[in-house]
Amino acid sequence: MTQSVLCEVNSCKNWEQGNKCTANLIYVVSLESKQPSEIKETGCKTFEPTAS
Known about the structure:
Helices cover 0% and strands 19% of the residues. The chain is mainly β. It has one domain.
């Protein structure tokens, strides 16, 4: 478990109480074809929705 990564997306299966991310690997990508300069230009590819 990744100890120092926090996540506020509680609809992700890697989310744990206290906003902890339980994923073994975090994969972040650029949303544009350029190097991002702002957080809104990135996205978390590690996200997987929880089972409903």
